[in-house]
Write a structure and sequence with these properties.
The chain has 406 residues and is of the alpha+beta class. The protein contains 16 helices and seven strands. The chain has helices at residues 2-29, 43-51, 71-81, 105-113, 134-148, 150-158, 179-187, 207-220, 229-240, 244-247, 257-260, 295-298, 304-309, 331-337, 351-355, 365-371, and strands at residues 250-251, 264-266, 272-281, 313-324, 376-385, 391-394, 400-405. β2 (264-266) and β3 form a beta hairpin. The longest helix is centred in the N-terminal third of the chain and has 28 residues, at 2-29. The chain is elongated and about 70 Å long.
Length: 406
């Protein structure tokens, strides 16, 4: 009997240990929090992030989904997600002096060494308890992607002059050195804009939002830059100054919109001139599957009836700067002064009010151009017949571009 007890005790201990491990794993996979309701938009993301060990809950069954995330916390989170990334041989172990003795030091050092955080951005210390802004978050995420592969490094370079589909692009404007960071974050769907059209660069991010971002980062790190349609579009607009060939069946052939970007066109009536910047197309052939990351900027819900009637039409939107010259210059001077595709009409919806870009005026136009007599950058609309798309842009000096079928 005594011998049997000696045999059974280790077995029972093993069973207890195994049962505990299984219970812990099941608990981790099905963790619920009292402050995360069943209908919370990020419930599954929160539970998944916790089960993977990225996030931890607080005591008493709380997650605090609406609490802001600090620099130290987010650095630790991305370090955990990027667990498969290899540290360089010359890895730093003392990135910031103000982290000595801080709980996050090792993970912040890891985030720095993996390329997510640039120590030069924090010359006065990391200040780990500072809530991280969305602009910072986008920069960290994009920097990590760039460090992870040459493809993302190339994508970063190609988006330096792209157009970001957020209102900050127009008011107050985004510094060019910040654009590619936001482009990579948005193009890979790591971060998106808000319903009001803004990116919210100075806003902080909640623990719930960060949970969703972490799971996306886990996925993005497994893919190459070319796998993301939105990023490909942002890259093309950055290089070619147009997304035309990505979202439609049309092409500029041996010419390019980039050939006319920055070029001047003098109006044939001598009333002024314009400089062409870029052209954005939105495929509306399938209303619920509009092609283009820029669709929300230019095509509104109240446009649907128009496009339902105007089948086989591709709307394109051109950004130009008009320089008035004639006395009492008004919109008629522009419309009569251009007969090729550098001419355009007013965008008829009110999305320009939401995003803050300037639309071609159709009222009080003399006063409008009088107030902007040094030049005004604005957007105009055109509509290409997909059955007969031949359209041409002719600029001063002989530069031109042609749109035709592929």
């Amino acid at each position: 009997m005594e011998k049997l007890k000696k045999i059974m005790l280790p077995i029972m201990s093993t069973v207890v240990v195994v049962s505990t491990l299984i219970s812990s794993q099941v608990y981790a996979a099905t963790t619920t929090f009292k402050d995360v309701q069943a209908n919370h938009w990020a419930k599954s993301a929160i539970e998944s992030a916790v089960s993977k060990g990225y996030f931890k809950g607080y005591g008493n069954g709380l997650f605090k989904p609406n609490a802001s995330v600090t620099r130290a916390e987010f650095a630790s989170l991305i370090s955990r997600v990027a667990k498969d990334m290899t540290l360089p041989e010359d890895a730093q172990t003392d990135s910031f002096k103000d982290l000595n003795g801080h709980w996050s030091k090792a993970e912040v050092d890891r985030a720095v060494n993996l390329g997510f955080i640039n120590t030069k951005d924090y010359p006065n210390g990391f200040k780990p308890s500072t809530p991280i802004t969305r602009e910072e978050m986008a920069k960290w995420l994009s920097s990590g992607l760039v460090a992870s592969s040459n493809e993302y490094k190339t994508a970063f370079a190609e988006t330096k002059e792209t157009l970001l589909p957020v209102k900050e692009s127009f008011k107050p404007g985004i510094a060019q050195d910040k654009i590619p960071y936001l482009a990579l974050a948005m193009g890979t769907n790591l971060m998106n804009g808000f319903p009001d059209g803004s990116f919210g660069m100075d806003k902080t991010t909640t623990r719930a939002e960060s949970s969703a971002i972490l799971l996306r980062l886990e996925n993005v790190l497994k893919k190459n830059a070319a796998a993301f349609d939105d990023l490909n579009e942002l890259r093309m607009v950055g290089i070619e100054k147009s997304n035309l060939e990505l979202v439609s069946s049309l092409t500029t052939g041996n010419t390019s919109i980039s050939d006319i970007s920055g070029k001047r066109k003098t109006f044939r009536n001598g009333s002024g001139s314009l400089v062409f910047h870029r052209l954005i197309a939105v495929d509306v052939q399938e209303w619920n599957k509009k092609k283009s990351i820029y669709a929300p900027l230019f095509v509104a819900a109240d446009d649907k009836s128009f496009y339902d009637e105007m089948r086989n039409v591709l709307p394109v939107f051109s950004e130009i700067t008009i320089y008035p010259k004639a006395k009492d210059f008004d919109v008629i001077h522009y419309l009569n002064g251009v007969i090729d595709f550098t001419g355009g009409s007013k965008i008829v919806n009110k999305l320009h009010e939401k995003y803050g870009y300037i639309n071609l005026p159709n009222m009080n136009t003399k006063q409008f151009f009088k107030e902007n007599n040094k030049g005004v950058r604005l957007w105009v609309a055109n509509y290409i017949d997909l059955n007969n798309p031949n359209s041409q842009f002719d600029m001063d000096g002989g530069s031109f571009a042609v749109i035709r079928k592929k």
